[in-house]
Amino acid sequence: MPKYWMITDRAIANGEPGSARGPLTYYVSDTEGSLDQFENWDAVSADQFKQQLIAAADQFPPVAHGCNEDQLHVTFFVHGYNNDWKAAALRYQQLCADLFSGEESMGLCISYDWPSCGSVIDYLPDRVHARECAMDLTFVLNELFAWLMQKQQATQKDASQACKAKLSLISHSMGNYLLQKAMAAAWTRNNQPLLVSLINQLIMVAADVDNDLFELSAPDGNDGNAVANLTYRISVLYSGRDAVLGASAGLKHFGTRRLGRSGITQDPPTGKDNVWHVDCSSFFPASVGAMDIHSAYFVTKETLSLMSDILTGLDRTVLDQLGLTKGTAWPPPTPQT
After folding, report:
1. Which domains does the chain show, CATH number per domain?
2. In degrees to the nearest 10, what's the CA dihedral of 54, 59, 64, 67?
3. Which of 96, 172, 200, 255 is the S-S candidate for 100 at Cβ 3.0 to 4.6 Å?
4. Is this structure's pTM higher than 0.90?
5. Average pLDDT for consecutive 10-residue bins of the chain (337 residues)?
6. CB atoms within 10 A of CB 286
7. Which DSSP state fits 239?
8. Which residues have a Cβ under 8 Å from the Cβ of 301 and sit 6 or more positions away?
9. Region of residue 172 (phi > 0: left; psi between -120 and 50: alpha; otherwise: beta)
10. Are 259 and 216 in contact (CB under 8 A)?
């Protein structure tokens, strides 16, 4: 099966995906080289991508009833703001190396790549792009939803047809805004299903969305309700030390903080016990600058391990009791006098 997978709606410019929106296109790769070299990707049709993905997931080992934590994942990764195609491809490749390779692999990972401008000064254009591209991700989610329904019907007739993979998602920064809008649209298009969890584990990393997203009375409360109802468990990883999100808050709803900087307004949010948060500030040493913390989750061993444990499905109380939600790198010890 292919080692790397990518769905992108970037238009091709100067021989590689650029910063403008284009049609959805599909790529796979078995390269041993760098994924930021476009020649290392092979274009496939949507149907070829789907059939290869089905075949790859079908190679996952079956697990016995009660061994849910051993089941492997098909995980989508949605990058954030200020990532051009090359940066997004390299982050995806490193995430695959850290969580989706070797004997401890969580399964396979697919990059959902959207046309961020890749520039700090293009914050507002990126937000517009994220909202526009949400419809493309909605299409992908709807295809996954239809496949899930087919598998459930087939499994009722023949237990051997049960899906061997969990479907999970890791979204970073403004990628969470794109996901928010995409899942809200998917929820509406599929008649607001209440008995189906499309996403098993959703990890919202440094989420650049309103921190009251999951409150029904909030401006985006309907979106948050859709995300929560389509997901088995939502884990919010945040840090008050994130200066990038501190700056972005001034461009959003007045009086509303960023989810990835302050965590959710209530834990758990009213009526949504499947949403929780982890303050990751203690995982990052003091040497990590405030502007760098926004992406430090993907280069810090402890936060990567936490993501792995969350994908595994360990209960939040177990994660707390094992000390996996608290680091020792910060704050630095008080000097002795």
Report:
1. 4-321 (3.40.50)
2. -80
3. 96
4. yes
5. 95 93 97 98 97 93 80 95 90 98 95 75 56 91 88 68 85 94 92 82 96 90 93 97 78 72 85 94 94 95 98 96 96 75
6. 10
7. -
8. none
9. beta
10. no
